[in-house]
Amino acid sequence: MSIHSAGKAEKITLSTIAKMKGREPIVMITAYDALFAALFDGEVEMILVGDSLNMSFFGKSDTLSATMDQMIYHTQAVCNGASKACVVFDMPFGSYTTPEIALNNAVRVYRETCAQAIKIEGGKEKAQIVRTLAQNGIAVVAHIGLMPQHVRSEGGYRVRGKSEEDIEALIDDALALEAAGAAIVLVEGVKPEAARRITEAVKVPTIGIGAGNATDGQVLVWSDMFGFFEAFTPKFVKRYGHGAQMVREGLSRYIDEVKSRAFPDEAHSY
Ligand code: KIV
């Protein structure tokens, strides 16, 4: 049962998402505010309030300086716009360094927002954190593969799963996180073959980004896919619109009409 088979009025829960594995691809998109969340709500199964907002919305060069307060504020805004999609809160860098810190922050997310799950980056070394969260009633999306929060320590964004050894390490991560209680495994920036094998190895749904088309679902950052974020376009991003161009064209017409006093005309005056 997806949002399309269930009817657009229904709230999508994590158990709806779990049942979609192997049946129908899950569609996830990021949103950072009520306006766009309302546009996506009722259409996609899941909305991720990603810490990518630190780049596309806040103008930083990576995600690392996003804070809990910022992520909570944006998630509250998304919750104001979305009543049907399953909302996921992206835990910012430094907010889940120990099981106790992770639990305190995740409890705050559940108390202050409508998010149904939180997302953390990391492999099997994060299994204890996932276990603590799951045992305390917090649903976890475990993000493996290319992990943007590691960009400084690793000196860049590295595509994973290029060797058999690395594919096996990724499968190991996915299995350990699933055993610890992860509800979903999000796989970023890995070779399609690696994502396919991870998806076959785990029983929970996988969501891919830059991971080929064999995962149980896909996620894209809305400002990338609609052509608003122009600083760079990763290879895996497909443009489904030319947002920046549309705004520039409209803006240019507005400027011309104000300068020429064509706007406001009679139709737009009291
Ligand atoms: O922050 C984000 O938007 C993400 C996606 C790229 C998965 O983590």
Layout of helices and strands:
Blueprint: H1 3-6, H2 14-20, E1 26-30, H3 34-40, E2 46-49, H4 53-56, H5 68-81, E3 86-90, H6 99-112, E4 117-121, H7 127-135, E5 140-145, H8 151-154, H9 164-180, E6 184-188, H10 192-201, E7 206-209, E8 217-220, H11 222-225, H12 243-259
Parallel strand pairs: 1-2, 1-8, 2-3, 3-4, 4-5, 5-6, 6-7, 7-8
Helix pairs in contact: 3-5, 6-7, 7-9, 9-10
The site of 3-methyl-2-oxobutanoic acid has 11 residues, from strand 6.
Structural key phrases:
globular, TIM Barrel, binds 3-methyl-2-oxobutanoic acid, eight-stranded parallel barrel, alpha/beta, 270 residues, 41% helix, 12 helices, 2 domains
Describe the fold and architecture.
It is a single chain. By secondary structure, the chain is an alpha/beta fold. It folds into 2 domains: 3-239, Phosphoenolpyruvate-binding domains (TIM Barrel, Alpha-Beta Barrel), CATH 3.20.20; 241-270, no CATH class. It is built from 12 helices and 8 strands. An 8-stranded parallel β-barrel has the order 1-2-3-4-5-6-7-8, surrounded by 6 helices. Strand 6 (184-188), helix 10 and strand 7 form a beta-alpha-beta unit. Helix 9 runs parallel beside helix 10. The radius of gyration is 20 Å and the shape is globular. Bound molecules: 3-methyl-2-oxobutanoic acid.
Mind telling me the CATH class of the largest domain?
Answer: Alpha Beta
Number of domains: 2
The helix content, as a percent range, equals 40-55%
Low-confidence stretches: none
Beta-strand segment tally: 8
User: What structural class do helix, strand and pairing data support?
Assistant: alpha/beta
Discrete helix count: 12
Write down the secondary-structure element order. Answer: HHEHEHHEHEHEHHEHEEHH
Q: Looking at this structure, what is the CATH superfamily of the largest domain?
A: Phosphoenolpyruvate-binding domains
* Cα gyration radius (Å): 20 Å
Strand content: 5-15%
Largest sheet: 8 strands, parallel, barrel
Provide mean pLDDT, rounded.
Answer: 96
The appropriate CATH architecture of the largest domain is: Alpha-Beta Barrel
- Output the strand order for the largest sheet: 1-2-3-4-5-6-7-8
| Ligands (ions, cofactors included) | 3-methyl-2-oxobutanoic acid
